[in-house]
Design a protein that fits this description.
Layout lengths: L2 E8 L10 E12 L2 E9 L5 E9 L4 E5 L18 E9 L2 E11 L6 E10 L7 E2 L15 E10 L2 E15 L2 E13 L5 E9 L7 E10 L2 E9 L5 E7 L5 E3 L19 E8 L2 E7 L8 E6 L4
Antiparallel strand pairs: 1-20, 2-3, 3-4, 4-5, 6-7, 7-8, 8-9, 10-11, 11-12, 12-13, 14-15, 15-16, 16-17, 18-19, 19-20
Length: 304
């Protein structure tokens, strides 16, 4: 496959107090035709993140409007999401929208942090959200001792399925702390209570430190996953396939998208969201600085 980059789609202007910098982890909600509402996390001057949105035409790459206020803000002091929230996955269910989000707290030694998965629900098409619980629906466990983050959730037949990032260790090195995480799998009957047994969907390759932010599509009899992977030189987008959503074959060399020298994504390409909008496969992704330079758009070129 080959993705044709359309350039950077959006980055905050810095005019709003809750969105001084960053537009991280874009998640698109199709609104009809080629227009989507794209949720993302922006940061204030204290580095606390809130979830906002822009509406954009993914065919022309034009931003049509943007939220004046966040749809989800950090939780109260001492809660799992008191330092910030990030969007991860949006699922339509019984007339409502389920927003699976990441809540985080800073650790005692930067860049160490703690992350858990929360759930918020919207009854107005994503213009506002209410938390299902003040506590996370997925948190650290014997299977995920350091953190859980960036879930992708899908209703698949009678099952709710989740592929999520599991942090399993930190290491001290001469240049500081290094995180290590890979992608694990969980299931649910209702999208709220989740079962997990430590099953690893995407394992690290030799020399890799992190595999992050999965996005899964089921197309016919094949599950396709895009994610970002890091061997210490910045994130690159990877790709894998599976017949059952459990056992995956990595095909990173087929991801079909890489850095643009000297551009906003010249150092990293991270956190992809992939979906079919207007009959075309589209990718939203972050570039340098974990979303500091905003997010861009790419279109999948048809097979020749």
């Amino acid at each position: 496959m080959r993705w044709r980059k359309q350039g950077r789609l959006y980055a905050p202007s810095g005019e709003r107090a809750w969105a001084r910098t960053h537009a991280s982890l874009p998640v698109a909600l199709p609104l009809g035709g080629t227009v989507c509402r794209i949720f993302f996390a922006a940061r204030d001057e204290g580095n606390r993140s809130s979830i906002g949105w822009v509406e954009a035409d993914l065919d022309t790459g034009t931003v049509l409007r943007e939220a004046a206020a966040p749809v989800l803000e950090p939780g109260p002091l001492g809660f799992f999401d008191d330092h910030g929230v990030y969007p991860a996955s949006v699922v339509e269910h019984e007339g409502a929208l389920y927003l699976y989000y990441v809540g985080w707290n800073p650790g005692p030694t930067p860049p160490l942090f703690y992350a858990s998965v929360g759930l918020a629900v919207s009854d107005d098409g994503g213009l506002s959200f209410r938390r299902v619980s003040p506590a996370p629906i997925l948190a650290r466990s014997p299977y995920d001792p350091c953190l859980v983050t960036s879930p992708f959730v899908m209703k698949d037949g009678g099952r709710w399925r989740m592929w999520y990032v599991s942090g399993f260790r930190w290491e001290r090195a001469a240049d500081g702390l290094h995180s290590f995480y890979h992608v694990k799998y969980a299931e649910s009957d209702d999208g709220i209570e989740w079962r997990r047994d430590g099953h690893v969907a995407i394992e690290l390759r030799p020399g890799e430190r992190n595999v992050a932010r999965p996005c899964v599509r089921r197309e016919g009899g094949v599950y396709r996953m895009w994610y970002s992977c890091d061997s210490g030189e910045g994130y690159r987008i990877g790709y894998a396939e599976s017949a059952d959503g459990m056992d995956w074959t990595r095909r990173d060399d087929e991801a079909g998208i890489g850095p643009s020298t000297g551009e906003w994504d010249g150092e990293a390409q991270a956190y992809p969201w992939v979906g079919e909008v207007g009959g075309v496969h589209r990718m939203l992704y972050n570039g340098n600085g974990f979303g500091r330079t905003g997010f861009g758009l790419a279109h999948l070129e048809p097979d020749r």
